[in-house]
Each structure stands twice: as structure tokens, then as C-alpha cells.
Design brief:
- The complex is a heterodimer.
- Chain A is α+β, with helices and mostly antiparallel strands.
- Chain A has 13 helices and 16 strands.
- Helix content of chain A is 55%, strand content 19%.
- In chain A, strands 1, 2, 3, 4, 5, 6 and 7 form a seven-stranded antiparallel β-sheet that branches. A five-stranded mixed β-sheet of chain A has the order 12-14-15-13-16.
- Chain B has 13 helices and twelve strands.
- Chain B folds into three domains: 6-55, no CATH class; 73-184 and 317-348, Rossmann fold, CATH 3.40.50.2300; 186-316 and 354-366, 3-Layer(aba) Sandwich (Rossmann fold), CATH 3.40.50.
- In chain B, 48% of the residues lie in helices and 18% in strands.
- The chains are: A alpha+beta, B alpha/beta.
- Chain A binds chain B through residues 94, 116-117, 122-126, 128-130, 148-154, 210, 219-220, and chain B through 58, 60, 83-85, 87-89, 91-92, 95, 98, 102, 107-114, 116, 297, 299, 318-319, 363-369.
Chain lengths: 499, 369
């Protein structure tokens, strides 16, 4: 029994400690994993933003380059078409330019002759001061340029030499198209809810696209804007990259916000395409991911705590139930032991040990003055030795049991103790005390009747507590003496005695 | 453009308001524009008034007048003094009007041509060639030299050709050209710029005058306005008058020479668009303190104004000149004469701007902050 209890406690203790350790380990691991994921995310932001921006800038640069190539191709087709028309008059030229416009959708298509006279569908004008590419005496290669028009529009001019073109005998210098740069920029725009910015720049950092490169740089000169907030060597590198048409990226902090710029050259032009994103935008973008992750981690922790709580509650209840059962069993055992220790096995009344306990208790009560009414009855079985000797111990035991039964029958309101082989004591208090004299008289009459019937004879003496008594034994002594006197009386009446 | 008292200016503005309410749109817009010029040049005008005027100095927001052309196709010939960005700005206004006619289903074709350098002889040849071609509804000219060109225009008119003048230089008084669209106050522009310079110099000092092309009415009139203004102040002296023939490089060289001859030069009056650019370059290079006043909207000149090298600039509304020239040419081609539809001289504004106005003008004209 003892061994089983220890094993069970050990198992429970192990389960509790193990459970707590497991719970702490899982929670700790969850928190650490969550933090590590966030740190890894932060580290990835810079790399991803640069990569993302570079791809974005590169895509736009290619779009522009393709658009320019497409325009130049169309211009070549237009010139070839015009050559084939055999134009002889200005009106025929205007009509042909109108056809080119509708056939190839080249809205701003124009030709410039050797005198820098520009021919369009509806207008012929002197263009020397209006078109920079005409300042060259002879045009040798394609020219892509931007300029600020009077009226603040920025325009793109794509010009190509036309060395073999003659109309009505007059050599022509170039063909060109000119259009608002916003026509290109509108093609590049897409709805990303203002998270990223881009701009087309000249090599000196002038914004050609009239687009905001973020709130800090806006439409201002790129290099002027970031001078002072970008380390000088990085600024110089970027400036050099722009000058040489080399792609790159850089980051700077403006107004507490980290901005990343990627830039790539636009093929066959002097332009650079730049894209910018604020790190905060990426962080904001990742915020939902972070929040989800955080929520997941929190849920995990809550689940673990909940699960552990339920587990420990069940464990506690089981332990409590187990302890209660053990306690009750122990109490029962104690009761059994105590009962066995205080009960006479032969008669079923309380034994000498129980009387000693009761006597000690009563003595304390007497000392404390808490008891006034106490009666002690001392009983002794007459002729027990004679029965044992003549009829055997079984008969003797039977006599004892009969005596006990008779005593208990009369002293129903008293505590009966077997204190010796043939001796009983009855302790009377309260109701038993009040009826003591009457009961003794009835008892004695019964005994005297038994003498004639040769049945069990018990001599009794009694006494009550007096003010001089110091303890129960004082009362007992008087009752015992009285009992001997009664025994002599009964002998005289024919009852057997020990002697 | 004159320096007049605040009281007159206020009275003019009041008149403008009344005219606006009575819906005299065409006339009132001219007067309003004139009023803005006057208000802007008015000494002591409030900052708010100046800014408003600067913003409206060039009007890019035009609509054709409610006139129904009689034909669906017109063909014009325009020639001007010389190849120069100033006339390119005029061309943009013309092209705007051309687009708006096209939107109404009316095709307007034209030639807009000039020599590399100003020349009355070249202009004469062009005009006669255009007359001989005979297929132009109207021939327009920015007069290179009124003495030479005016008789040519008279003869063309006598021959039945519909002739108009435009941009900055009209023909001589009494010329038979039908109408003029452009700056009608070149003399006043020169006088007002010079008045501003004199005040800045506390009405004493040596000044030089740079002029554009010899004989060009607009340039000569401004120079005349400048000279007459200087003459009012006994402590002011004109030490040199030079012509740059509308060349920035020549303006630069001439200014260097003037500074060499007169190291104590106090100011330079520039009468055309190239003058102030060349003068500012030279002044900057030499570290001179000479105060520059000049004409027009050259981007480089506006930057010099922004930087304080140039004191003030008179900015003409070239866009409106071009726009109005084309739509009045259509009316003239239809046989209309000055009167209810258009004035014999359609005035366009000049706005004097100062250093604080330069960023606005740079943004307005060039998107340049």
C-alpha cells in the first residue's frame, strides 16, 4: 500500500513538472521563432526592395526604349513611303504627311529640310531655334532629346537623319516626331496605390517626367535633393553612374524615413529611369503578414496555456479525488484500529484501554471543574472461576457474555467497560446519572432473582462524584468497596463467589 | 505701360470690374490685362497683386471667340523678323488656335517663316513671293523695318491682298494693313523698365542701352522710351547705345566692351529678348554691379532674375499674341474689317516681374522650379 502511494505521487509530480517544462519550452520556442522570423523579414526587406525596385525601373526603362524604337521604325517607314510618292508640290507634301499620320498613327511626324524649314501636315515653319537637333549642320545619327516647352510642358523629340530624302529636288535633313512626355509617362503608370514612385531623369538629375519621386525629392533635381543627406562618396558614385549610364541603387533617410532608389539607363537615350520606395511602405505591406504571424504565435501560446490549464485542472481534480479517497480510507482504518483497540472482543463493550482514555478525560474535566455529576458503577461476575473450573472456559466465556449483556440491558444510558476478566465498570453521566439509583435497584432485583434460577449473578457497587474527589479513581474506590460488600450479601443469599 | 498714380490705377481697376459685369468680354479682357500691367508696375503695389499679375502674365487658356468662319479651309502666310525662341512662343499660341479650329472642322494651314537674321530686304522678298504665289487668304508680318516694309504692305493692300501685322512690331502709322495683333506699347515698356532702373539707382548714374535689330519698330520704340525717360533725370547719363541684332553672343560681346569702356557703369537697359541674357553673362563674368533691366521670358534670363543678376524683366504674352493672330486672320480672310469683331490694334499685355516673381514665371513657362 505504501509503495503504491509513493509511485502514484511520483508519477503525478513527474507529470506536473514535465508538463510545465514542456509548456515553457513550447511557448519559449514559439516566441523565439516569431522574433527570428521578424528579424529575418527585416533583413529581407532591404534586399527585396532593391531587387523589386530594380526590376520595376528596368521594366519601365525597357518600355520606354521599346516605344522609342517603335517610333523610329515607324518614322523610317514613313520616310520610305514619302520617297515613293514622287511629291512635287508643298500641297502634295502636306497631303502625304496627312496620310502618314493616319496610316502610322504618327501624330507629330514632321520633316525638316536643309534650310531647317519644318514641314507638317498643316504648318510649315522655320525651326532652327525651336528644335535643338537642327542646330547641327548635318545630322548623322538618331537623336533623342527632351526640352521644356514654353508653357511648361516637357516634350520628347525623336529625330532621325534622312540622308537620301529629296522632295521636289530639295534635300531633307531629318524626320522627327515630338510629343508631350506625359504620353510616355502615362504608359508607365500603374495603380499601386501610391506605394512606389518613379521618375525619368536626365544625366544631371533633372526630372523629365514631371512625376514625384517620393514626397521628399518630389519633382526636384535628384542630385540637388539628396545632396547632404546621402554620404558624399555615395552621392559621387550615384552622380558618376548617371553620367556614365550605369545602373545602381542607394538608400537614404529623409524626415526619418528610409528611402531606397534604384536606377537604370534607358537604352539609346541619355535618360535614367529611377524608382523609389519607402522602407516603411514595405514594412506596412508586411505588417499584415507580421500581424498574422504574431496572431498565430499568440494563438499557439494561448492554446498551449489553455491546453495545459485543462490538463493541470484535470490532474488537480484527479489528485484531489485520489487524496480524498486515501484520506477517507485512512480515517476508516484509524476508526477500525481505534475501535479494535478500545473494544473487548468477547463482549463487544469497551475495554480497559478505552476506560483508561475515558478516565484520563474525566480526570481532566474534574480538574477543570467542568463536571459535577458523575456516577461510577463497579460490576463483578460471581462464580466465574467456579464455572471455568467446573464447566470449562467456554462456559466461563458464556457467563461473561451473559453478564455483559445484562449490564448493557440495564445501563442503557451509561458507558460499559470490561476492565478485567470478570469486572465491568459503568460510567454514568447526565441521563444515566439521573436514573442510576432506580436502575441499580432494578438490576439488583434481577440479580437476586437469578440466584434462585442459577443464572448469571453480578455484584455491583456504585458511587458518585463528591467535591472531595480529585479523580475518577476516588469514586471508583468507593464503588469497588461497595461492590465487595454486595458480593458478600449475594453470597449470603446463595450466589457462588470466586472464592 | 506707364507709371501712373495709385488713384488712376484703382480707377482703372474699378472700370474693369464694371466692364466685366456688363459682359463686354473682349474689350474688358484687354483692359483688364492692361490694368494688371499697370497695377503690377505701380510702385507700392501689394505683394498679392503682383503675384496675381505674374500668374496671369501669360495666358495659356484660350478659347476661340464665338465667330463662325465662312469657309472650312484657310491658308495663311506669316513672316517675322528672325529665327528666335520669342517667335517660337508665338507659334505655340498659333498652333493652339489651329487645333481648336480643326476641332470645329475647319482646317487652317499656314507658313510661319523667318530669316536667320533680321533683314528688311529678306522680309520684302518673302512678302512679294507670298503675294505672287497668290494662294494665301491672309499674309501676316512682324515688321522688320517700318520704313521699308510699310510701303510694301500698302502696295500689297492696293493689289487686293489681305495683309495684317502681328507680334511685336506694327507698320508705320497710316499703313493700309488691315489690323495688328501684338504689343502696342513698346515705347511704354521701354520707359517703364527704365523708370524702374532709375529708381533703383536713385535717379543718378551711367547707363547703357542695348537694342535688338536696327529699324525693328518694337526695339526702336523701347529704346526711344528708355532714352526719353533718362532725359527726365539730369543726373542720369546714357554712355552707350548698341544693337545686338537679336544675338545673345553679340549682346555679351557688346556688354563686355561697354564695361571695358565704362567700368563705372551703373545700369543696362535691354530692349529685346537676347539683350538681357548676353548682358547678364558679361556682368556676372566681370563681377560688375550694374543693374540690368530687360525684356521677355528667356529661361536663362529668368534664372538671372531669380539670382538677382537681372533687376526686372518685362514679360510679353506671346502665347496670346499667336492665338489671337490666327483667329483674327480667319476673320480678316472672311472679309471682316476692324470694328465689332476685332480691334484695329489688338493689344497684348506686358508684365514687369522682379526677383520674387522669377520662380513663379519659371514654373509657369518652363515647369522649372
Amino acid at each position: 500500500m505504501m509503495k503504491k502511494r509513493i509511485t502514484r505521487k511520483t508519477i503525478i509530480l513527474t507529470a506536473v513538472i514535465g508538463g510545465i517544462l514542456l509548456m515553457l519550452t513550447v511557448i519559449g520556442n514559439t516566441i523565439v521563432s516569431s522574433r527570428q522570423m521578424m528579424t529575418a523579414t527585416d533583413d529581407a526587406v532591404s534586399e527585396v526592395s532593391s531587387f523589386y525596385l530594380e526590376a520595376m525601373a528596368d521594366q519601365r526603362a525597357k518600355t520606354i526604349a521599346n516605344l522609342i524604337d517603335s517610333n523610329f521604325d515607324d518614322m523610317e517607314k514613313a520616310v520610305a513611303f514619302i520617297k515613293d510618292q514622287g511629291i512635287k508640290t508643298d500641297q502634295e507634301l502636306r497631303d502625304t504627311l496627312g496620310s502618314v499620320k493616319s496610316l502610322l498613327s504618327l501624330d507629330g511626324f514632321a520633316l525638316a529640310d536643309e534650310d531647317n524649314i519644318v514641314h507638317k501636315q498643316y504648318t510649315t515653319y522655320t525651326g532652327g531655334s525651336r528644335h535643338a537637333f537642327l542646330s547641327e549642320e548635318e545630322m548623322e545619327e538618331r537623336d533623342v532629346s527632351t526640352f521644356s516647352n514654353y508653357g511648361s510642358t516637357k516634350e520628347v523629340c525623336l529625330a532621325a537623319p534622312t540622308p537620301d530624302l529629296q522632295i521636289a529636288g530639295k534635300p531633307y535633313k531629318a524626320s522627327f516626331v515630338q510629343f508631350d512626355i506625359r504620353e510616355i509617362i502615362d504608359l508607365l503608370a500603374f495603380d499601386d496605390e501610391g506605394r512606389t514612385y518613379f521618375g525619368l531623369y536626365s544625366k544631371n538629375g533633372e526630372c523629365l517626367s514631371d512625376t514625384d519621386l517620393g514626397p521628399y525629392i518630389a519633382k526636384n533635381n535628384l542630385f540637388d535633393s539628396i545632396k547632404g543627406i546621402l554620404p558624399e562618396d555615395e552621392w559621387n558614385t550615384m552622380h558618376e553612374n548617371f553620367s556614365n549610364g550605369v545602373e545602381g541603387d542607394t538608400s537614404f533617410t529623409a524626415n526619418g524615413v528610409v528611402e531606397t532608389i534604384s536606377y537604370v539607363p534607358v537604352e539609346n537615350t541619355d535618360w535614367m529611369m529611377a524608382a523609389l520606395i519607402s522602407e516603411s511602405v514595405i514594412h506596412d505591406r508586411l505588417q499584415s503578414v507580421r500581424e498574422k504571424s504574431q496572431t498565430l504565435s499568440n494563438n499557439q501560446i494561448i492554446f498551449i496555456l489553455l491546453f495545459s490549464g485543462i490538463f493541470f485542472l484535470i490532474l488537480f481534480l484527479m489528485l484531489k479525488d485520489l487524496s480524498k479517497k486515501d484520506l477517507e480510507a485512512e480515517k476508516e482504518n484509524t476508526r477500525t484500529f481505534r475501535h479494535m483497540a478500545n473494544t473487548d472482543s468477547m463482549t463487544g463493550v469497551k475495554n480497559k484501554h478505552a476506560y483508561s482514555d475515558a478516565e484520563a478525560y474525566l480526570n481532566q474535566m474534574i480538574r477543570d471543574g467542568q463536571i459535577e455529576k458523575l456516577g461510577i458503577v463497579v460490576c463483578d461476575i460471581n462464580g466465574l472461576k467456579h464455572v471455568n473450573d467446573t464447566l470449562g472456559h467456554a462456559a466461563g466465556d458464556k457467563l461473561i457474555q451473559d453478564a455483559s449483556t445484562m449490564i448493557c440491558k440495564f445501563f442503557t444510558h451509561g458507558a460499559v467497560y470490561r476492565i478485567g476478566g470478570d469486572e465491568f465498570t459503568v460510567v454514568l453521566q447526565e441521563k444515566g446519572y439521573e436514573s442510576m439509583t432506580q436502575v441499580i435497584e432494578e438490576f439488583n432485583r434481577e440479580v437476586e432473582g437469578n440466584i434462585e434460577k442459577n443464572e448469571v449473578v453480578v455484584s455491583i457497587g456504585y458511587s458518585t462524584l463528591t467535591s472531595e474527589d480529585q479523580c475518577v479513581h476516588d469514586v471508583f474506590e468507593r464503588a469497588d468497596q461497595m461492590m465487595y460488600q454486595r458480593k458478600q450479601q449475594l453470597k449470603a443469599m446463595g450466589a457462588a463467589t470466586r472464592s | 505701360m506707364k507709371v501712373i498714380s495709385r488713384r488712376i490705377s484703382i480707377a482703372l481697376l474699378a472700370l474693369i470690374s464694371v466692364l466685366s459685369f456688363t459682359s463686354c468680354s473682349a474689350a474688358s479682357s484687354d483692359l483688364q490685362a492692361a490694368g494688371e500691367v499697370l497695377a503690377n508696375t505701380e510702385e507700392g503695389a501689394s505683394g498679392a497683386e503682383i503675384k496675381t499679375s505674374v500668374h496671369s502674365a501669360v495666358n495659356f487658356d484660350h478659347e476661340l471667340m464665338p465667330y463662325e468662319p465662312k469657309k472650312d479651309h484657310y491658308n495663311f502666310y506669316f513672316t517675322y523678323k528672325t529665327v528666335h525662341p520669342w517667335w517660337d512662343a508665338v507659334a505655340l499660341g498659333m498652333e493652339d488656335a489651329q487645333r481648336q479650329f480643326l476641332d470645329k472642322g475647319i482646317t487652317v494651314t499656314y507658313e510661319y517663316l523667318a530669316p536667320e537674321s533680321a533683314s528688311a530686304e529678306d522680309q520684302t522678298k518673302r512678302l512679294l513671293a507670298a503675294e505672287e504665289a497668290g494662294d494665301y487668304d491672309v499674309i501676316g508680318v512682324d515688321v522688320a523695318d517700318e520704313a521699308i516694309i510699310s510701303p510694301i504692305l500698302d502696295k500689297m493692300s492696293d493689289d487686293g491682298v489681305k495683309v495684317m501685322t502681328f507680334s511685336s512690331s506694327d507698320a508705320a502709322d497710316g499703313c493700309k494693313r488691315i489690323a495688328y495683333v501684338g504689343n502696342t506699347h513698346n515705347y511704354e515698356d521701354g520707359a517703364d523698365l527704365t523708370e524702374a532702373l532709375c529708381k533703383k539707382l536713385n535717379y543718378q548714374g551711367k547707363v547703357a542701352i542695348l537694342v535688338g535689330s536696327v529699324g525693328a519698330p518694337c526695339h526702336e520704340d523701347r529704346a526711344m522710351g528708355a532714352k526719353d525717360t533718362i532725359a527726365k533725370y539730369p543726373d542720369m547719363e546714357i554712355v552707350a547705345t548698341e544693337y545686338d541684332m537679336d544675338s545673345v553672343d553679340l549682346a555679351y560681346d557688346l556688354t563686355l566692351q561697354i564695361l571695358q569702356d565704362h567700368p563705372d557703369l551703373d545700369g543696362i537697359i535691354c530692349c529685346n529678348m537676347s539683350n538681357p541674357v548676353g548682358a547678364a553673362r558679361a556682368i556676372t563674368e566681370k563681377g560688375s554691379d550694374a543693374v540690368i533691366v530687360g525684356m521677355d521670358h528667356d529661361q536663362e534670363a529668368l534664372h538671372y532674375l531669380k539670382d538677382g543678376v537681372i533687376y526686372c524683366l518685362g514679360v510679353q504674352d506671346c502665347y496670346s499674341i499667336g492665338f489671337d493672330t490666327l483667329q483674327i486672320a480667319v476673320m480678316i480672310a472672311d472679309g471682316n474689317q476692324p470694328g465689332e469683331l476685332f480691334d484695329e490694334k489688338t493689344d497684348e499685355t506686358t508684365t514687369v516681374i522682379y526677383q520674387e516673381d522669377a520662380p513663379i514665371m519659371l514654373s509657369l513657362l518652363y515647369g522649372d522650379e
